[in-house]
Specification:
Layout (H helix, E strand, L loop, with lengths): L1 H6 L13 H27 L17 H28 L2 H6 L4 H12 L13 H25 L5 H6 L3 H28 L2 H8 L2
Helix pairs in contact: 2-3, 6-8
The structure holds protoporphyrin IX containing FE.
């Protein structure tokens, strides 16, 4: 595993790597998969909305319910496969613990207050602050919740116990929608934060 990880880790020998190759690839594949899943999901929701609104059609994908379902079911494999690669390599290489731990409520409060006062340091982009760690761990759990609730509403008979655990088909559908909404909120905040510190975007593209 270490050999595979190091083979795609260093963009240029001798230069320090901030974001290894496998992480950059899985991050951008994830962005593609999430974009397609959210936009096709909005079209599927529009066919049978349970809230008092529909998503504007120009922000949806698939053209109609059948087309949107095809996009959704095709890209769910990419989302899950890519997510598994991210999790397995991240955990097995020890990077996840190094990058996301320690994490404490006190640290989160301190970093959140520093950020609000404009005092949060971005001198070293190799380290995530506690708010970033919490946000990234949150979105990982949220995507897992999206996949699990998605399985429950995709195959409510085959995944009967899972569907029952979520309270049945309709509640599972609402869990899926809530997880999608939290993911979209994360993306809005995440992209705003990246815009404030553009150096991080360079490291997510070039590795350095
Ligand atoms: C579409 C959904 C997205 C999700 C779920 C997501 C998720 C994440 C996660 C979990 C990380 C931390 C990865 C790790 O270190 O293991 C991360 C980092 C990062 N993401 Fe995203 N991301 C998304 C979209 C984007 C977009 C659109 C951009 C560009 C505008 C972006 C730019 C970055 C950058 C620059 C970092 C590194 C941040 C830093 O070094 O401080 N992400 N993202």
């Amino acid at each position: 595993m270490d050999t595979i990880v190091s083979a795609v880790s260093s963009p240029r020998p001798g230069r320090p790597t901030i974001q290894p190759g496998w992480l950059r690839i899985t991050h951008w594949v994830n962005v593609l998969a999430i974009t397609v899943m959210v936009m096709s999901g909005w079209r599927i929701y529009n066919a049978s909305p349970f809230l008092d609104f529909r998503f504007p059609n120009q922000y949806t994908l698939g053209g109609w319910l059948g087309g949107a379902l095809q996009w959704h079911f095709a890209f769910m494999w990419l989302l899950v496969g890519n997510g598994l690669v991210y999790l397995v390599v991240n955990l097995a290489s020890g990077r996840m613990a190094r990058r996301f731990l320690p994490l404490s409520p006190r640290g989160m409060l301190r970093d959140a207050l520093d950020a609000l006062r404009g005092r949060l340091s971005h001198a070293d982009v190799r380290h995530y602050n506690h708010v970033q760690r919490a946000a990234y761990l949150f979105v990982i759990v949220d995507i897992v919740a999206l996949v699990v609730s998605g399985l429950a509403i995709w195959k409510p008979v085959q995944f009967g116990p899972l569907c029952a655990l979520l309270g049945g088909y309709e509640p599972a559908r609402r869990v899926h929608f809530a997880a999608m909404s939290l993911l979209v909120a994360f993306v809005v905040l995440h992209v705003s934060m990246v815009a404030l510190v553009p150096r991080t975007l360079r490291s997510m593209i070039t590795g350095r």
